Structure prediction request, 149 residues.
Amino acid sequence: MSGIHIRRARPFDAGAMASLLNAIIEKGGTTALTDPVTGDVLRDWMARGDIWHLAELDGEILGFQWIGARATLPDEACDIATFVALGKHGLGVGSKLFEATKKAAKTAGFSWINATIMAHNEGGLAYYGSRGFETWAHPDGRIAKRYDL
Prediction:
C-alpha cells in the first residue's frame, strides 16, 4: 500500500489510537495490556516525552508505534511498542513505522531499541525478528529482543 503516510502522532490523535488499541486488547493474545485505554490515558502517555509515530491512509489510522526510555533499561536504550489495526497486517504498516522510529531513536541519542514480546505472540516475534531484532533476555515468560542502531 504505497499511499500509507507516516507522521508524528499528536495528542488530538489519541482518541482514534485508543479505539485501535482497544480492539487489539479486546481480541487478546498480542499485547500484555488487558484493560481498555482512553484517549486521555494515551495523551498522558504521550506527555511523558516518548516519541510516537502513526501510519494513516486517507485519514484512517492503520497503526502506531512509540519508543521511550525506561527505568528498567540502560540510558542508551529505549523500549518500543507497535500496534497495527486488526485486518491491516501485511500491508507494510509496521515496516514504514519502524523506518521512521529507527531514525527518531538515532536522533534522540539512543544506541539500541528493546522490544519485550509475550512468548506466545508469534506475530510480534516474527515482526521484530524480521526487522533484525535479536533475542537477549527472557523476562517473566516474555522474550526481550534488541535492535542495535
